[in-house]
Amino acid sequence: MKIIVVGGGFAGINLAKGLAGDKNFDVTFVDKNNYNFFPPLIYQVATAYLEPSSISYPFRKLFVHNGNIHFRLGEVLSVKPEENKVVLNNGELEYDRLVFATGAETNYFGMENVRKNAIPMKTLNDAIEMRNKLLQRMEKAAVCKNSRERRKYLNIVVAGGGPTGVEVSGMFAEMRNGVLRREYPELSTSISNIYLVDGGDAVLAPMSKKSQKDTYDALTKLGVIVKLNTRVVDFKDDIVYFHNGETITAKNLIWAAGVSARTFDGIPAESYGRGRRFSVDGYNKVVNTNNIYAIGDTCIMTGIDAAFPDGHPQLAQVAIQQGTLLAKNFKNEIKNKPLKTFKYNDKGSMAIIGKNKAVADIPKPEMHFKGFIAWAMWLFIHLMSLISYRNRITTFYNWMVAYFSKDQSLRMIIRPDKSRKKDEVTSGVS
Fold first, then answer.
1. Smallest Cα–Cα separation from 93: which of 114, 123, 72?
2. What does the radius of gyration of the chain's CA atoms come to, in whole angstroms?
3. 276-323 pLDDT per residue, tens
């Protein structure tokens, strides 16, 4: 069976792992990057606590010992379901089964100025760009003589009170209160604020009330100004505008407020559900198609899983479990065995706030953790979730250096020379 997998995130990788070494399947990956990366830790790359290589690994090296797994760097342009072909920007591929594991992309909710001027937090490229921009703005602030202008460079607004927004806000607050005050003596007396804004009435909305309160208290203790029931509606001329008429002057708006899936030419409009996600049945087959599947953040399964009738949350564990089950179902299909419908096993949620500060909710049995215990749990689970031993070792080393020295030496501005003509690199979905 010839299987094309578009996207090499949690869902796609676990599907491939389940089929690796099985000669009944010829699997080809298609991705815009030649590497897998670990999204939960991109904020640590963005804040210069980890290097990009600590949380990424090349696809070809990952499956070098599996002869039935291949890789294709490219962009999906369209699908020809009637011909069982997927059209790339560098050719076509035939398939028996096509699987979309393309994740989600940043959603700016139609706000063009926000799209142009805000800093997204979705990909490894976003993280590197964010690190460069923030470090350059710190340098500009250090030589700025006008106090009001300097505050624009130093103020940071984080839009989105989910795990990413909470984690990056906490990290910035700790850096401001420690490392940056030591390294930028010119700014030691300057006023700077970190704002975390969200349209809901609590941070970490999907988590328990205890986690929400503990997180709010920890953030405010770090000096983060949390503004709830507050939506960003515009960002221009270094001013962030909110729906209630309030404004904040800042050059730095970090966008972690929403995601949406991507649509593809050739797929019927009726095959999409809420948030442009592929609407799938209990076996992750896209509705109104014969042999096209979708797994992870890019799909929505409604009315199947009794515990999640309106669809599953866009979390790593959902993607991992769907990829693993689809691999088993493909094997069962080959052997003419019955297929198994997807049922999500919720293993819990957690978020880190700062050093020795985190929250964790475990559903079965229902337990809540905070502080050092939750922080240690978060570190262990994220460390073990990295894709290779090399990633785990380098990440663990960097964490230990940062923990005991209260510092990190990775704050370097590294950017390409834009004066030279770049080589044309294929791009696509991930």
1. 72
2. 22
3. 999 999 999 999 999 999 999 999 999 999 999 999 999 999 999 999
Asked if 48 contacts 408 with a C-beta cutoff of 8 angstroms, the reply is yes
Contacts 24+ apart (CB under 8 A), 137-145: 137/251, 137/252, 138/180, 138/184, 138/187, 139/413, 141/184, 141/187, 141/190, 142/184, 142/186, 142/187, 143/186
DSSP letter for each residue of 29-87: EEESSSEEE-GGGHHHHHTTSS-GGGGEEEHHHHTTT-TTEEEEE--EEEEETTTTEEE
| Residue 359 backbone dihedrals phi, psi, to 5 degrees | -135, 150
Cβ–Cβ under 8 Å, residues 216 and 67: no
Asked if 46 and 165 touch (Cβ cutoff 8 Å), the reply is no
Give the Å distances, CA to CA, from 57 to 52, 181, 390: 10, 34, 9
Question: Count of alpha carbons within 13 Å of 341, Cβ hemisphere only?
Answer: 10
Question: Which is higher by pLDDT, 419 or 26?
Answer: 26
Structure tokens at 133: 């921009």
In angstroms, the first-to-last Cα distance of the chain is 23
Q: What is the pLDDT of residues 226-252, one digit of tens each?
A: 999 999 999 999 999 999 999 999 999
pLDDT at 65: 87
